[in-house]
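About this split. The held-out portion is used to measure sequence recovery: a designer receives only the structure tokens and must propose an amino acid at every position. Recovery is the fraction of positions where the proposal matches the reference. Here is one held-out target exactly as it appears in the evaluation file.
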């Protein structure tokens, strides 16, 4: 198959969707498919190629209600249409896959309709996980997603929780649940700074939904009972200044370290050395950082709101908690930090559980969905592209 993965964001930006598309494209190619990655032109300094394959960064102008905004959109339309048409003509995809619906979504939907190419939508929980709550504020985005859902011949979702949220946008094909994957044999890199001897790790974008403020509150409550243990938070985002201030106000600034953004290898090393990892999101569509903790053999404490509760077994391969309850989280932090037997139990089971989420399995699930979508939509006009 010739597959166009149309991502809301891609390299050099870092994040869950970017990681997902990065690995998925490689594993699909290893299975013999011709994969193109198209992403949104965000004005970054971007690589000309990705692992020897061209990446297309396409303009995605969208209108807004202001007069100036409408004029800018009208002026940008001709160039954007040419760019998307050129991408389709050059790559000739048999199927177009929207990976996370953003500004890429309306354009991919429009192109698929015009070129009569089957459309598949891969949902990553963006309808409720977006840091700016774009689907609440943008009528255009909501309407565009409804249209894409109606026209998509197949829908995938990273969790049943995320799939259920799609129902409020209208009728759609039954979602196939395809979780995230992980490279089990990834190699760590030396961290840019020396770590404390014992520390709890939190990894993620520093936005309100990720719940790092609750983690700070919980750590402050547990601090007197876990002497000699620090908290290390890796990631960047608009909440960083607020979180640093909160740590000072709670009197724990000397035991909390903010590392900023880390590369893949850095995250591996950070989690390899952690006493435990905490995923405190107020809601989480899936939680790929859980897989990273399991891979490292690190005990994982994770939110029970959203996707994690679908694949993590409380008390077996992790500990689930209410992300609104800092007292409960503090008790769990104390428990896992002071109980070496519990840590070993969770670590061993986590290493076993992560084997269910290899990229080979994830890619196979996608391959089944895409093959079915192409087969069910094939017409004489699309046969000529093969």
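Reference sequence for scoring:
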């Amino acid at each position: 198959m010739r597959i166009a993965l149309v991502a809301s964001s891609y390299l050099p930006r870092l994040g869950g969707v970017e990681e997902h598309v990065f690995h998925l494209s490689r594993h699909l190619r290893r299975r013999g498919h011709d994969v193109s990655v198209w992403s949104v032109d965000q004005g970054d300094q971007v690589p000309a190629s990705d692992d020897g394959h061209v990446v297309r960064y396409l303009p995605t102008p969208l209108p807004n209600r202001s007069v100036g905004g409408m004029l800018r959109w009208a002026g940008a339309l001709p160039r954007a249409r040419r760019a998307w048409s050129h991408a389709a003509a050059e790559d000739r995809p048999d199927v177009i896959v929207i990976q996370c619906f953003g500004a890429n979504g309306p354009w991919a939907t429009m192109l698929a309709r015009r070129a009569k190419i089957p459309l598949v939508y891969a949902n990553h929980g963006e309808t409720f996980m977006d840091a700016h709550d774009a689907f609440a504020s943008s009528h255009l985005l909501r309407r565009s997603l409804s249209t894409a859902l109606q026209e998509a011949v197949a829908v995938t979702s990273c969790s049943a929780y995320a799939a259920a949220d799609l129902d409020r946008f209208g009728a759609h094909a039954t979602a196939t649940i395809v979780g995230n994957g992980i490279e089990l044999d990834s190699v760590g890199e030396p961290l840019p700074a020396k770590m404390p001897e014992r520390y709890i790790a939190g990894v993620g974008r520093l936005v309100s939904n990720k719940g790092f403020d609750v983690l700070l509150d919980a750590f402050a409550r547990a601090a007197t009972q876990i002497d000699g243990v620090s908290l290390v938070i890796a990631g960047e985002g608009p909440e960083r200044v607020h979180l640093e201030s909160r740590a000072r106000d709670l009197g724990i600034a000397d035991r909390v370290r903010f590392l900023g953004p880390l590369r893949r290898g850095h995250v591996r090393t950070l989690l390899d050395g952690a006493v435990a990892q905490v995923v405190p999101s107020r809601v989480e569509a899936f939680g790929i950082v859980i897989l990273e903790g399991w891979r490292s053999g690190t005990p994982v404490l994770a939110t029970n709101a959203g996707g994690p509760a679908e694949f993590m077994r409380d008390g077996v391969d992790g500990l689930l908690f209410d992300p609104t309850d800092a007292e409960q989280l503090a008790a769990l932090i104390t428990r896992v930090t002071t109980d070496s037997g519990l840590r070993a139990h969770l670590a061993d089971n986590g290493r076993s559980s992560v084997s269910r989420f290899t990229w080979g399995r994830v890619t196979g699930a996608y391959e089944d969905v895409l093959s079915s979508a192409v087969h069910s939509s094939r017409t004489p006009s699309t046969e000529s592209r093969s």
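Annotator remark: Residues 380-386 have pLDDT under 50 and may be disordered.
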